[in-house]
Amino acid sequence: MTSKERSTCGTAGRREKLRELVETGGRVGVLGTVDDKPVGWIGAGPRLGFPRLRGSRAAKLIEGDDPERIWSVVCLYLTRDHRHQGLARVLIDRAVEWARDEKAEFIEAYPEDDRNPETPFERGSFRGRVSTFESCGFTVVEPRLQHRALVRKDLR
C-alpha cells in the first residue's frame, strides 16, 4: 500500500488487504510458529513490492542502488511471551534464505538503532533492532533519522 492508502483504510482495512494477499497466493513474509501456533512474523519481500518505501527517509536508496535487486524487511513482530529467546534471529535468517533463493543481491532493513545505550529508541516499534540484525550478519550501512539505521546483507 502507499502511505495514503494505508492511512485511509484503517486497521480493519489493512488486515483485510493482508488476508486477500495471502489467500490469493501472495508471499508477504515469514510466519514463525512454536508447537504449530503462530508466535511471530517478519514482513519481507522485494523492495519494489512495498510502495511506502519509495518516500521513506529511513529506507532511502543509496546512489547507484538497483531497487529490483534488493529485498526489504519492513516488519518484525514476536508475541510478548516469545521475545528474548532468539526467535527474531530465526525469522531474520529465514527471510535471508528466502531472498537468496529468489536471487536477490541484497536484503536490507531499517531497524531501531540500539547500539548506543544512552540513545532512546521506540521500544514498541515493529522494525527490530540493529544489534539483532548484526547478529544475523547484516552490516550497518549508515545511520538514518534520529534512532534508525540502514542495515544490509550482501547475498551475492
TrEMBL record:
Classification of source organism: Bacteria, Bacillati, Actinomycetota, Actinomycetes, Kitasatosporales
Pfam hit, one: Acetyltransf_1
Domain of life: Bacteria
Protein name: GNAT family N-acetyltransferase
Limits of the N-acetyltransferase domain: 1-156
Native source organism of the sequence: Actinacidiphila polyblastidii
